[in-house]
Amino acid sequence: MAQLARTLLDVPPLLETRAFFTEVLGVQPADVGTIAWHEVVNRMVTLREVEIREYRNLTKSRILGYRLTADGIVNRIMRRENYMLALFNKDLLDISFPGLGKRQVLTKALEWNLSFCLMNYLFDERGQLRRRFLKESNRAILSEGLRRRFKFMAAINLMFVPFIVVFLVLYSFLRYFEELYHEPGTLSSRAFTPYAKYKFRNFNEVPHSFRARLNSAHPKAALYLSQFRNDALIAVARFVSFVAGSFTALLIVFTVVDNELSLEFEITNHRTVLFYIGLFSAILAAARGMIPAEEQEYLHPAWIIRDALEDLQYMEPEWRGKLETTMVRRGFESLFTYKL
Fold this sequence. Notes:
single chain, two-stranded antiparallel sheet, about 5% strand, 4 strands, mainly alpha, globular, Autophagy protein atg9, 14 helices, about 350 residues
């Protein structure tokens, strides 16, 4: 219900944005997905220059004194995100979890809480920084207000923990069931963590440019970690793959012999042959995803990670000159973890 209400509230500004693109910038809805970003920016800057020339002699409004630039447009779009990026890029927040050492854990729920407590406190509904934050004399009052917001959200989160857990479980099931059903091997695939995305992103970097960098670095990151073979884990995966494959093949043979067997015969209570075929097939696909190809060529890890880090535009100071070490592998692995 909350998401539905938020969507309905977003409809009027979205319609205004659509009208601005179609009627002012001359970008048709069908072309929004293909027009280059720099072309949109150029049209906005040109429109502003025309507006200043035509209306400068008709009014003395100070608004006409402000010119648009590409940097200014992106800065306005990314204003809130830049503050969030600074919290992580400058290591201003410690979100390490007890028992995991220095590993930083950022979940979507924690990200939303930080956005509510900090960003909604700093910015007004127009996306402008509240003026009271510009005065040093207000520091004590604002700090106390922020402290109260954190305490309030902590109490709210604690109160609704059972409902949040149920919601996240249902959401995850509905979100990933279809993907895992058709491609069980994705259980053993990796992705950049939410925390890593904040660390890798540059200030004033628009979302589509950042996604392009991540997509370029993703296969290199996966190839880099595949060079560190865990022979014990591979042996276990081969064994699990053999057992799951054997059971799957045996059950399929039984169903071929007797078609009604898959629907009526229960191996365990209320669990038919068809259920176990699906279960063992999923285990088989996940185990095979953890087994490297026999013909995979060994490459020096430092060469691969260097290319990946160039795409990500990121380098920890202690990693310099040590890209081939286990220390770098562990640090990078914490930023590029299993989707599961």
